[in-house]
Amino acid sequence: MRPRVSFGIRVIVLLIVLFAAAALLAPWISPHDPLRQSLLLRLKPPGSATASAGLFPLGTDDLGRDLLSRILYGARASFIVAILSVSVSLVVGTLLGLAAGWFRGWTATLIMRFVDAMLSVPAILLAVLTVAVIGPSFVTLVLVLGLTRWPRYTRVAYAATLQVAGLPFIAAAEMAGADSARILLRHILPNIAGPLLVVATSEFGLMILFEAGLSFLGLGIQPPAPSWGSIMSAGRQYVERAWWLTVFPGLGLFTLVVCVNVMGDWLRDRLDPRSAGR
Amino acid sequence: MRRYIARRLLQAAIATFLVITIVFFVMRLSGDPTLLLVPEGATAEQIAALRHALGFDRPLAVQYLGYLGDLAHFDLGQSLVQRAPVWLIVASRLPYTMALAAGALVFALVTGIPAGIAMAVWRGGVTERLLSALVLAGQSLPTFWSGILFILLFGVSLHWLPTSGADGPASLVMPSVVLGALAMATFARMTRISVLEELGRDYVTAARARGLSMGAAVVRHVLRNAAIPVVTVVALEVGNLLAGAVIVETVFAWPGIGQLAMQSIFARDFLVVQAIVLFVSMVYIALNLATDLAYSAIDPRIRGMA
Amino acid sequence: MSGAPALRVTDLAVHYPARNGPPVRAVDGISFALEAHETLGLVGESGCGKSTVARAIVGLQTVTHGSVMVDGTEIVGAGRAALRAARAGMQMVFQDPVTSLNPRMTVGAAVGEPLLVRGLARGAALRERVALLLTECGLRPEDAARYPHQFSGGQRQRIVIARALALRPALLVCDEPVSALDVSVRAQILNLLVDLQRAHGMACLFVSHDLAVVRHVCDRVAVMYLGHLAELAPRDALFSAPRHPYTRALLAAVPEPDPVAQRAKPRVPLVGEIPSPARMPSGCRFHTRCPMAQPVCRETEPAWREVGASMVACHFPNE
Amino acid sequence: MTPALAVHDLRLLIGGAAVVDGVGFAVAPGEVMALVGESGCGKSLTAHAIMRLLPDAVRQDRGYVALDGDNLSVLSERQMRLVRGRRMSMIFQEPQAALDPLSTVGAQVAEGTGSPLRQARAAVLAMLDEVGIADPARRIDQYPFELSGGMCQRVMIASALIARPAVLIADEPTTALDVTIQAQILDLLRRLAIERGTAIVLITHDMGVVADIADRVAVMYAGRIAETGDTAAIFARPRHPYTALLLAALPRRTDVPRSRLAVIEGRVPAPSEFPTGCRFAGRCPLADARCRAETPLLREVARGHLSACWHAEAVR
Questions:
Q1: Residue B283 maps to a domain
Q2: Inter-residue contact A120 to B236 (CB < 8 Å)
């Protein structure tokens, strides 16, 4: 009954693994130091090579830094920010959603009204405001993204918990004598993990976009540290002279997000029978 | 029905109150909100004087009540950078963002919803594959990248459209499409799921068993039922469009509240930023409320809840 | 049969708050007792409150008022610990065998859970007890390692029954245990329930809408209509000489799997629909559909009284 | 006489598995023919195939349906639309799900006439009255959620029969209803069959319903017809071991309470695992080597009584 793992999905997974490997291995596979500037090598087009400095496969930026190395390190930043912020919001959101769904009553009202309010402030705006107030830094970025995005998980966890908690096997566990902790951990959590995983996947793609967007606006990863968003932000002024500064990091970002989104849709079709499409 | 409306109004009021509270505390996350309001290069005495003048040396609870009181009078404060009332600054930029959001919404609606219906009705075919690729692109494109590429292609290379600024309707086209791409994808996905779900219901088979063609069944029964979740999503997306304007307006130098927000952040004019966040959130809450109330008028099941 | 009954329900009521107007009286003051080793059938159409009664008895349903005594323990208003202790002596079998089992838990873990969480067995001893329970319910000990989706509906219901038997309860509440099953499988589960009751002698409350099934397994039968008991009688009395007009109509409406008998049956179809419990009729709740209704039925609620071997709530019972 | 509906040698495939195989039967005007079997036996797919409303995943690769002698398989989808609702209709198991929640009762019944409610209003009112809906003038403008399940099924029947089709396919029409309501709906169907001469194909799993209303019956097992004939004959003396066991598995009013019910060991094989030979052989007490090797075809074992069993004469 379940869709087999198709060729397309295998390719997608492979690409994501390649991106992750590039991010992980950036220090070892980068041809150059991403921070090393050289005024002599400014805005070299892709494929430029010099006898002293070697090959610049994707060219150099306005400060003469190697673009490929900066993109590899930028991938690192994207992955770390996305993984950490998704983890923060997944944990916070799931716990609150479980609590609301299990205890119901005023606990649920309190939590869910707060969720409504959080969701009323568009996340990117709230993130922009918060980062601007506290001042941009890596930790700020992770915390702000993590702590503005949990309500989506809470909604899903709450709805799923309510649904599962009404099923007879939960009543059976109560009849067996299991306590709340056991019911939540052994009976409910494993059965709501699927939809949460789907949300986490789509959020992972969004977090990568948000990180790049905030960095593009100057509110994310701070220069000179490389990030896809800040590379593009800097490259914007030279877009007519040095298209590679915009095209390559954007292409990397776009490809990675496409892969993550395809992965998310595939998981949804597998895990969520309601939208399985038949 | 009256109870339903009352409950929905109360929920909206609670959400408004909580949003206001959240923003108040976010503004104080750095410890000293005075620092967010002074122009670059102010002396320590100037800062202290301002802190006292603005009441930031009072206890938090007193500040909070004062803040609520001001908002209750729609007093958003005075910009110390631009030396003008905050609401006036925001209001002067608002028409641009409204035009942009409207353009993006129209683009997203006229492409996304038909695409979603087509994907559901012709599922499994070439049409669905092509459209889903388009939807995937809309969903995955970073606006700051697609914006720049659009400028390069249609502005710089082809000279079809102005590259930036707000000069007549032509300059609205690119930013609208770029901003609306994500909403288009969302509408298309939601419409597809919703129509597919309705297509699988017994009443569709029953209508066909009465002699209706598939097309007639879709038009007469499916679309109305499928519209309910889609309309909700449309209302929610308007809030996201306003928020997405921050990036798109920056890329296209579009003089709306998004650009204003970024300019205010770098000019350390945080009351303006705060006002924009509050405004967008209120629009979101109001639209959400409006859709729910609209349903209660349309859907006989809600209407019937005496 | 000496001592206290296995179950005594007194004036049990479950009311739900309605969005507006008076509360919905899903169960409205019903009383009955169940002796040890006895099987009592609780029948009625959807919405009559029979499943709510079952859930109230095992403490899964908040009760408005009344009393449920199981083996000398009051269930209504019992605290967490008291309820947990009482549930060692009463277990439940549910209607839908698919949702009665946690899909992410092995069969062995499910059947062993009551023993494990109560500290009654663990490790090898637990596995042995589980294997015995599975065998007793017609499954193989190896099945303990498999997951519920690998089993058919009938087999899943066997697993559910094995889990309910793990604590050797004195009272088993079965809520429509065979309604979701196909005919051939239904027979297997009914045979199993009959065998298990013979072997262990527990008392059993058997909730069902299927009169033929109830007749097959029950000693006494209670008929519910709109939150009230209409009639409670020994099986043979109920089926051969129903006293309440609703019982008669119900028996007449059930199609017999025998064309000759079925077509010879007098046709007295009930007119009209079951009223909503939110808008309960005055007087006797059945008067809106009763072929014998008199003015008094509209005004006065009939008393719950003894007629012959039966208890019946009707102004004009068949005597 | 030409039967109102005849199904010939129908075969339906899901993937490679023949979930319905060689199903054929005929129904005369005014006759009620029951297709009975347990879940997954293919009875509901057969019903949908007759209407040509099969889900996308199901493919018909053999057989045809004749309506009053006209072969429907040669019709285009456009022509078929003129058949549905006008010459042949269908009602469903979940009456509330089979009605569009956002359309009024009247609008949906009027669809069966092909004209809008404004023009068809009088006909719709008369039809609602005919199916026993009290106060049709009020009900006509109500929405399905305002009606009970039994009333929704009456509305479905009204919408199916308003154009006076010769054949009605009723797919488990009373399964979701309470017994007292079931009795009302069965009485209504019987009355309509007699008064209007409608041929009814009744899909059900309930032998009691069959005994009550069906003139003839086809018992299905694993996609094939096990046996078919007059209802009285089949209940009196089943000629297929599956039918015999199915009847013996039912608790009856004449049984000794708590006596052992007959059981059919094992389970229905999944379509992908259908055996060669008789599909019931794996669970049949009479099965021998021949049953496992050769598929038994339906053959006449008594007048009008057909059984697909090599041992039909030995069934008791």
A1: no
A2: no
